Every structure is written in C-alpha cells, then in structure tokens.
Amino acid sequence: MLLPLALFSCTPNNANSKTTQGNEKPLVVATSTVIADLAQEVGGDEIQLQGILQPGADPHVYEPVPADSRFLEKADLILYNGYNLEPGLIKLMNAAGNGRKLAVGEVVKPLQLDKGKGEIVPDPHIWGSAENAAAMVNAIRDGLTELSPEDKEKFAQNAAQLTSELKQLHTWINQQIQTIPPDKRQLVTTHDAFQYYGRAYQIAIAGTLIGISTEEQPSAQTVQKLVESVKKTGVPAIFAETTINPTLIKTVAQEAGVQLAPRQLYSDSIGAKGSDGESYIKMMEANTRTIVEALGGKYTPFKPGHK
User: Fold this and answer.
1) Structure letter (DSSP) for residue 101
2) Per-residue b/e over 90-124, b at no fewer than 16 CB within 10 Å?
C-alpha cells in the first residue's frame, strides 16, 4: 500500500535551515491537526512547529487568512496531507511557499471513491488506519532528517517510539471492533471519512449523509435514502462528527428510529487540548470507544507498553 516518498521541492536558500539561519530551529508548518500532532511527536524540541488548522476546524472548507501566507512564506518545510484534503491551503501553499513541501498523506496508496457521474477521486482520509499513520510518521521523520541532518538520531528515536505505539494501537482497535456483534458491525456517519478505518478494522461503512468533502449539501432525497438504508441495516446507532453540524444526521436518526451515538466521532481533526481526542492516538482511541459502546461491543481502555 505504501508509495515511495515524494520528492521534495526546495529553493537554494532553504537547502539547510540551520546552516543558513545560524542555530535557529527550522520552522515546520503543518496544515492539518493530525499532521501537526504527529510532526510534534517526531520533531520534538528540535523544530519550531506551526500548525495552521486549529482543533475542530474542517480542512475541506477552510478559507486561509493572511497569517497563513506569512507562515507558509517563512516555512523551511511545509507538511500537508495532499489528495486535496485541504484545497484552499494547497492553493495558497503553491503560491506562497518557498521551502520544501511534503504531501505526507500521499505516501500511502489511496482508496478510490466514486463521487458520482463517473468522477473517481482519491480518498484523503488516510489516517483512519493506524498503520497508515505509521507510514506518515516515517515520511515526516525522513522529511525532518533531510531538513536538519544533525538531528537524525533524535528524529529516528522519536519516530520509532511513536510507530511502536501505533502498531499496538492498530492491534487494540481490531480487538475492540471484534467485540461488536457481527451483524451490528456497520458504521453510518455524517460524511465519508471512515473508509480506511472500516477497511483496516473490518467494520462495514453502511452509509453516509454526504461524500468525501463536507462542501456537499445533501438534498431531502439523500436524507430520506439514508433513513431507509439505516432501517434496513438494523444498526442500533449512527454517528455525528465533531467538525460538522449534527442537525441533519440527528434528523436521520429520529426518522429511522435509531439512537444518535451520545459521543461524536473525530473525523477531519483531532480534539481540543484537554479533550479525549487531543492527540492522534487519543482521537483513534476515543472514536473506537464511541463506536464499540454504541454498537453493543465491550470497550477496554488502550494501555500501550513502550518497547
């Protein structure tokens, strides 16, 4: 599933940040909250990290502000998801960014989704699998190492510890999902952000209100079709998401006669600091707990052991 690491584009002035700027730490700008969290874990104190999107922000529809241009212009390395997850920022980055650019998500071969009318597009929500997240971590490690070779050992150590924990997380999620009764292992969510999660952890995506991008506006007919689909599946609950207004999915739950899960899923963003989804790993644990408890499984907390 993994593709070769994308080549970096850079200008001569950014060939080695620490050399050209004295002993200053290189400035790394991350677009999404997931990438910012993983980059902080790998880069640690050896980098200056600036995330653009805030927890809870929706990358599909985010409209850049002037401060974003300034960060992108100053960045020694820009880490972005790719596969058109953050179209507004990608457009701005290509216009304003002078440093290296790395599409972290594009190191994973994407699932292809049909948007209708024959339009096939790559699904950008690749972090839905913890194994994919490990591939992202290794890409970030390599990108930071090329940027600051003198910190290679530190980046490698941080990445190794994080990927070990992600491997344990992957196994744990599989175990949790298997506690759900087989006929209830079906996921209905607001938008199509859980295909990788479903594929990795053997839970069917039984329906979504809208497609991959939250820019879509579902029609009354679409809502009614999902209501009928939910009735046929017999699932006990469906799920809202933290980055999307829950009004329509609440309507679907009411009309289908099923529960709306009491906790929302984190889809395109990690949670705010202090929340149960404040990091990538906590987000995945929180989502799994929400799914397992709402669909009749038995949740056991994730307790990683460091190796």
Assistant:
1) E
2) bebbeebbbbbbbbbbbbbebbebeeeeeeeebbb
Which two structure tokens, joined as six digits, stand for 279? Answer: 């990091």
Neighbours of 66 (CB within 10 A): 6
Assigned token pair, 239: 């799920």
Please report which residue ranges of 75-151 form alpha helices under DSSP H: 87-96, 130-147
Q: What is the pLDDT of residues 180-224, one digit of tens each?
A: 999 999 999 988 899 999 999 999 999 888 766 666 677 788 889
* Predicted TM-score (pTM) of this structure: 0.89
Per-residue pLDDT reduced to its tens digit, 162-174: 999 999 999 999 9
- Ramachandran region, residue 82 (left: φ > 0; alpha: ψ -120 to 50; beta: rest): left
Q: Parallel, antiparallel, or unpaired: how do β-strands 186-191 and 259-260 relate? A: unpaired
**In this structure, are strands 112-114 and 120-122 parallel, antiparallel, or unpaired?**
antiparallel
> What token pair was written down for 238?
């469906």
CA geometry: angle 61, 63, 252, nearest 5 deg: 25
Closest CA to 230 of 239, 242, 219: 239
- Measured between alpha carbons, how far is 207 from 189 in angstroms, rounded to an integer? 7
> 84 by DSSP, 3-state: which?
coil
